[in-house]
Specification:
The complex is a heterodimer.
Chain A lengths: L8 H7 L4 H20 L9 H10 L1 H35 L1 H15 L3 H12 L4 H24 L3 H9 L4 H38 L5 H10 L3 H29 L7 H4 L4
Helix pairs in contact in A: 3-11, 4-5, 4-7, 4-9, 4-10, 6-7, 6-9, 7-9, 8-9, 9-10, 9-11, 10-11
Chain B lengths: L1 H8 L22 E10 L6 E11 L4 E5 L6 H9 L6 E6 L2 E2 L7 E4 L11 H5 L1 H5 L4 H14 L15 H13 L5 E5 L7 H18 L2 E6 L2 H7 L2 E5 L6 E6 L14 H15 L6
Parallel strand pairs in B: 3-8, 3-9, 6-7, 7-8
Antiparallel strand pairs in B: 1-2, 1-4, 4-5, 9-10
């Protein structure tokens, strides 16, 4: 029935894709609130959403100030994993010798729990930002390498032969064929990496730091201040979402030609 | 030895179905010449011979078609002549110069158009120019002219996925021609197209060859396609690939689809088919 008449502005708004996650979020929050009321969950186990919002409102300046160190550590760790990860992936994809030496070791190192060795970085580098960056880097590094290796390796060998037969130098062929071809895979790795870098930074703050959202989190757990703890979690989630969105925007700008982007970019063509 | 093989495998040829005799030595200064070229992949126990020693010659401006069962090393042959692979034994000469690395004087068309999805059609056609680091300005008019020749005028700014398979393949032919190479090599160029488009492309390719006068080496496993297009047809044996026979196709250069009902055409197709029927290895 409703398809027959022109959709009203309200239903148009309800169908906007950016609104849908918010609607789901609202439903979750309502469910959360209802669950607390119905099952009578005490506030020291799960705080009510209203209390969390209150903390977010009253402590906002403090929370904002604490989220900057976390953001810096995340971004620097993430950039480091991109700057080191992509060239290493290039080497691994380009040479079987390098692959046989480096790749198994990389997987091996990845199996070590970062949380377990994070205190070591505090011992080595003190309580500053460096251990956090390293923790963020270590978590964000692996997905970039794995995706980029796959991207570099999935180039059609005929395509490379074609470019080589045109007398293209190695570098020229790489820039014209291999690198653009690998970009979609690299970006999917970067998107996973940026969210993991947030986790890494928080792990770094857990083990030894006196600033950052991770520090707020740990302090509030210590004092059973659950509303503050949940507020900190909300901020971390927001941080992850914003950084993910940024990488997504850059991806759209960098590879408008890719299948995953077509629907948005080439409307009406 | 190869000459003996050829006469053995083909029974008494009639006048227009002759097996081409050994090339005379004086023509080796021009065209493509292969002497004793073989290729073996791998080392030690895992050795696989792909090509038996081959000797043949392709003249300048000739439309040379290689036909053979799959896995007989046709594509290896193409890579050897373009310098992408080094032969295990023997020598390849293009215009008297020995091929040791990619010489850049070839345009290649593969079964898939292999256009770069991030470049528009015009920029895809200009790719050899970028690879060879030549001035784009000088070649843009030529690229546009080629696109016009294959009926892609007005599609310069489109991205590859916006074109049909046949159109993409025509663009890739333009790319193979843009730097004005001496030789054009095509590895089953129309294998991925439907039968109707394929016939049209055959007529078109025949016309392109007439107008440009390029030396074309085309690989196919369609016998009618081979005979329709070729000045000479080289029939290959099963792996490891060797020469079963080389036929002249005396149909003249101006060919339309009517040529397919010419008795010379049908005789030749039947004769070439015989090579494979005995082995029943054509897929």
């Amino acid at each position: 029935m409703s398809e027959k008449k022109a959709p009203g502005s309200v239903s148009k708004l309800l169908n906007a894709s950016w609104l849908r996650p918010f609607l789901l979020l609202v439903m979750i929050v309502v469910g959360w609130d209802l669950a607390i009321r119905i099952f009578g969950i005490p506030a020291y186990q799960i705080p009510a959403p209203g209390d969390v919002v209150k903390v977010l409102y009253t402590d906002w300046p403090e929370l904002l100030a604490q989220s900057w160190p976390t953001t810096y550590a995340t971004l620097l760790g993430f950039l480091a994993s991109a700057v080191f990860g992509i060239p290493i992936a290039m080497l691994i994809a380009g040479s079987r010798t390098v692959e046989s030496y480096v790749y198994p070791l990389l997987v091996f190192s990845q199996s070590i729990p970062k949380v377990a060795i994070a205190p070591l970085f505090v011992v080595w580098f003190g309580f500053g930002i460096v251990p956090k960056i390293i923790a963020a880097f270590l978590l964000g590094f692996f997905p970039v390498v794995v995706s980029a290796v796959q991207g570099f390796k999935s180039v059609d060998p005929d395509m490379v032969d074609l470019a080589r037969a045109m007398k293209g130098s190695r570098l020229r062929v790489f820039c014209a064929v291999n690198l653009p071809h690998a970009l979609p895979a690299i970006f999917s790795g970067l998107k996973v990496s940026v969210t993991l870098a947030v986790v890494g930074a928080v792990v770094g703050e857990f083990v030894g730091s006196n600033s950052g959202i991770g520090y707020v989190l740990q302090r509030s757990i210590g004092t059973f201040d659950l509303p503050t703890m949940f507020a900190a979690l909300v901020i971390l989630a927001l941080l992850g979402v914003i950084l993910f969105w940024l990488v997504d925007r850059i991806e759209r700008f960098a590879i408008p030609w890719h299948v995953s982007q077509r629907a948005d970019v080439f409307i009406g063509s | 030895m190869t000459a003996a093989m050829r006469t053995m495998s083909v029974d008494q040829p009639s006048a227009h179905l002759r097996v081409v005799s050994e090339q005379s030595a004086q023509s080796k200064a021009s065209g493509i010449n292969l002497s004793g070229v073989s290729k073996t992949y791998g080392t030690g126990d895992g050795q696989v011979q792909s090509l038996r020693p081959l000797d043949f010659h392709i003249n300048d401006g000739e439309f040379f078609v290689v036909v053979g069962p799959s896995g007989c090393g046709k594509s290896t042959l193409l890579k050897l002549i373009s310098g992408l692979l080094a032969p295990t034994s023997g020598e390849i000469h293009v215009d008297g110069k020995k091929v040791t690395e990619p010489h850049g004087d070839v345009g290649i068309v593969f079964q898939n158009a292999l256009l770069l999805p991030w470049r528009n059609i015009l920029n895809n056609v200009l790719m050899p120019i970028d690879m060879k680091n030549l001035s784009r300005e000088k070649y843009i008019p030529r690229a546009k002219e080629l696109l016009k020749m294959v009926g892609l005028e007005g599609f310069e700014k489109k991205l590859p996925w916006q074109l049909s398979g046949g159109m993409q393949q025509r663009a890739s032919i333009c790319r193979a021609l843009v730097h004005d190479p001496k030789i054009m090599m095509m590895d089953e160029p129309f294998g991925a197209l439907d039968a109707m488009t394929r016939e049209k492309m055959n007529v078109e390719l025949s016309r392109i060859q007439r107008t440009t006068g390029k030396t074309i080496l085309l690989i196919t496993h369609s016998i009618p396609e081979a005979v329709f297009l070729a000045d000479k047809v080289l029939v290959m044996t099963e792996r490891p690939g060797g020469i079963a026979a080389i036929y002249d196709v005396p149909l003249g250069r101006e060919r339309t689809l009517d040529a397919m009902s010419n008795p010379i055409f049908t005789d030749l197709v039947a004769r070439i088919r015989k090579h494979f029927m005995t082995n029943s290895a054509l897929d």
